[in-house]
Amino acid sequence: MGKTGKIVTIVLWALLIVSAVLIVSLMVNINEDVDTDPAMNSWVNTNLIWAYILTAIGAGVAIFAGLAHTATDKKAAKNGIISLAFMGGVVLISYLLASPEIPQFIGVDKFINDGTLTESVAKLVDTGLYATYILLALAILSIAGMSVARLFK
């Protein structure tokens, strides 16, 4: 194992030990008054913050590893740019198809009055729905297309 491997192993063990200590501390301090005990709330908050930190570290490492791989492999960079352009095209088409009209359903007045449902929010939700429909249609067409292509081989 090289120098980098040893450093990664040490860091991973440190993260595992901190996680284990926090979980054991939480379990030891569990009592019947979970909702009213400030110490219990403190342990839960500490564990949630640690989970956020681990998530951020994991996301950062994943992004860094992806960028490092892309920087060293030109084919991966080309494929990544093509994928981003495709997703951008799907989002653009979805946004152009989306309507800013606020949907009418039971209880919509509550969301309009408190400001959580506006025309821009409705357009973004509509964009997400159209993007989902487009990607689902493309997935179904690709599955069907591959099945048909196998018949002609």
How would you explain this protein's 3D organization?
By secondary structure, the chain is an all-alpha fold. The chain is built from five helices and no strands. It has helices spanning 3-28, 38-72, 74-97, 108-113, 119-151. Helix 1 packs antiparallel against helix 2. The chain is flat and about 60 Å long. The two termini are 47 Å apart. The mean pLDDT is 86.
Shape field: flat
Strand count, sense and barrel status of the largest sheet are:
none
What distance lies between the first and last C-alpha atoms, to the nearest angstrom?
Answer: 47 Å
Number of H- or I-type helical stretches: 5
* SSE order: HHHHH
Which regions are unreliable across 5 or more consecutive residues at pLDDT < 50?
none
Question: Brief description of this entry?
Answer:
Helix content is 81%, strand content 0%. The chain has 153 residues and is an all-alpha fold. Keywords: Membrane, Transmembrane, Transmembrane helix.
What layout of secondary structure does this protein have?
Layout: H1 3-28, H2 38-72, H3 74-97, H4 108-113, H5 119-151
Keywords: Membrane, Transmembrane, Transmembrane helix
Transmembrane segments: 7-28, 48-68, 80-98, 130-152
